[in-house]
Amino acid sequence: MSEKLRVGVIGATGMVGQRYISLLEDHPWFDVTCVAASPRSAGKTYAEAVKGRWRMDKPIPEKVRDLVVLNANEVEKVASEVDFVFSAVSMSKDEIKEIEEEYAKTETPVVSNNSAHRWTPDVPMIVPEINPDHTAVIKYQRERLGTKKGFIAVKPNCSIQSYAPALSAWLKFEPYEVIATTYQAISGAGKTFADWPEMEGNIIPFISGEEEKSEKEPLRIWGHVDDAKKAIVPAESPVITTQCVRVPILYGHTAAAFVKFRQNPSKEELVQSLLEYKGVPQELGLPSAPKQFIQYMTEDDRPQVKLDVNFEKGMGVSIGRLRKDKVYDWKFIGLSHNTARGAAGGAIECAELLKAQGYITKK
Ligand SMILES: N[C@@H](CC=O)C(=O)O
Questions:
Q1: Taking the CB of residue 229, how many other CB atoms lie within 10 A of it?
Q2: Which of 31, 58, 116, 296 has the fewest CB atoms within 10 Å, i.e. is most exposed?
């Protein structure tokens, strides 16, 4: 492998930013050369900026500790130090849209964890195992932005990762109605129990905006690139309805889902399809790709957050309790790691795909 790509993390001090820093330690293709955050943190070393709020299990990587945090709003300055950036900035949606486009216009590819651009028609929203071909829309985005190298790619919301991968494996059986209830960890809100004591022993039956994302984003993932429209056109089916609930768990989003199929798959066919489901990341052996994308657990009491959330270093998805339902056809439980597969890990795998496809290169 030739020289590593220089990467910046903007929004590096928050929970998702910290996860990027931690996961990128010793990455074979990417080297964190720049950290950027709000003006409040700018000018401090990274270690000073996250003092008392570093939430990862491993210590701050040595190479990053002493990097001086730049102001994420000084786009040209940050862009001059990197080949591409991961965005985990925390601003209003409009501000995020604007700043991510500013970065792209400096010919700096942006791989974003934010929802701001998830419905921009020429911005691909990627789960590398499911829709790696959606990157073809980048040429239209570059046309619009007037860039040669710069573009934005995003990853979907973490909640969908606990049921959408299974449904993707089953698209051939034509699912047409899905109910999913998600039980979401507090780290999805960027929090720990220390800063959200109200969540100890509690359940909160509301996560702002989450149900809409959980119902609509899978359809965009299952859509296609329409060359005439220069856009991703979302799929129209299955219709998905959700309830999203915050539960007192630190990491791991669980879903209880019900599915109706137009075809009549057997349990063996459904399980086999999960186990065989893989994609470009597995074929190319991308550094963050799980060997097994989806595992099926046969025990009645699995998957469990405590035991299974770190399957494939948090990049695999665990499915269990697949059984016939008397109202719907089938029901199951899914579990995924919300900050690994669901956030920074998924974005890093997406950047690896973009590099492998030649969209992210040395400047
Ligand atoms: N919005 C989610 C985070 C996923 O991206 C949550 O609140 O858990």
A1: 12
A2: 58
The pair of structure tokens assigned to 72 is: 């994420």
Assign domain 158-337 to its CATH architecture: 2-Layer Sandwich (3.30)
The answer, as to whether pTM is greater than 0.95, is: yes
**114, 89 Cβ separation under 8 angstroms:** yes
Locate 240 and state its tokens: 């998905």
Could you tell me if 335 and 256 are in contact, meaning their C-beta atoms sit under 8 angstroms apart? no
**Can you give the length of the chain in residues?**
363
Give per-residue pLDDT as tens, 327-360. 999 999 999 999 999 999 999 999 999 999 999 9
Tokens 């955050």, located at residue: 37
Rounded CA-CA distance 46/72 in Å is 13
Q: Report yes or no: 20 and 344 within 8 Å, Cβ to Cβ.
A: yes
Domain boundaries, the chain: 5-157+344-356, 158-337
91 — pLDDT class (breaks 50, 70, 90): very high
Q: Give me the active site residues, please.
A: 158, 253
- In which residue are the tokens 């507090």 written? 186
**The token pair that represents 91 in the structure block:** 């601003």
Q: What tokens does 87 get?
A: 């965005």
Ligand 1, pocket residues at CB < 6 Å: 157-159, 184, 188-189, 207, 210, 338, 342-343
pLDDT reported for residue 1: 47
70 vs 10: CA distance, rounded Å: 9
Kindly indicate whether the domain formed by 5-157+344-356 is annotated with CATH number 1.20.120.140.
no
- In order of 133, 148, 164, 167, 231, the CA distances from 137 in angstroms are 9, 14, 22, 24, 6
* HEC-encoded secondary structure of 314-356: HCCEEEEEEEECCCCCEEEEEEECCCHHHHHHHHHHHHHHHHH
Pocket residue to mutate for ligand 1, from 204, 207, 208, most atoms within 8 A of Cβ: 207
Residue 177 to residue 240: CA distance in whole angstroms: 6
CB 335 within 8 A of CB 252: yes
